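Q: Could you fold this chain for me?
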Amino acid sequence: MPPVAGAFMIDMTLGEGIALLQRRGRLVKGLLVAGFVVIQLVLVGQVAELYGYVSLAEDAVVEGPNALYFGVAATDILLELTTSVIFCLWIYRAAANIKAAHVPGFAFSPAWAVGWHFVPFANFVRPYRAMRQIWNASHGRGGDRLSGGNGLLVGWWGLWSFSVAVSIVAAMASFDAVSPDEEREVLILSMLYSATNLLLYPLAIRLVDRITSAQRDRLAAASIFT
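A: Sure. Below is the predicted structure, expressed as C-alpha cells.
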C-alpha cells in the first residue's frame, strides 16, 4: 500500500470510517444538487448561444447576458472540479471501510478504487468493477456475490462513460474548429454533454445515498458475522 494511502487509514475504526463516509456523502450530494441546478442554466445559455443571443467567443464583449453566461459556465466548471475531488474522497473512504470490515473477496485497495479513474482506457471498465464491489460489499455481500450487477449502478456508469466520451470528442473538435459550422458542431456536442449530466447527476445522488446508507445500516453488522 502506498504510504500516503495508508496514512488516511491509520487510527480509524470502522464506525469512525462510516461516520466520515456519511459526512463526505452529504457534501457530495450537496455539490451534485448545486451542479444539477447550474447545468440547467448552462444548457439554457448554450441554447441561447446556438441562436446567437449570447457568445463566449474571444472577441465577444463580456457584459450583460454574455457576462451572466460566462459566470454560469465558470461556476459549472468549478463545481465539476470540486465535485470530482470530493467524490473521489468518498469512493476512497467507502473502499477503506470495506477493507476495515474484512469483507471476503474485495479485490480493490482504496487507492486503486480511485486511481483507476485516471488510467486511460482502463477507466471505462475498472472503476465500474470497483464500484460494483463497493456496492455489493456495502450491502452485506461477499465472495462470489461481489460481482452481481445492479440497475442503478449500471445506469450511472453508462451515463458517466457516455458523458466522458462526449467531453473528449467535444474537446478534440474544439481544437480544430475554425469555421462557423465547426464551432456550431462543438456547441451541439457541449449541449449533449450538459443534457447527459442532467440525467447523470440524479443517479449519482441516489448512488451515493444508497451506498452510504448501506454501509451505515449493514456493513458494520455484516462484518461481525464474517
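A (continued): The first helix runs from residue 3 to 9.
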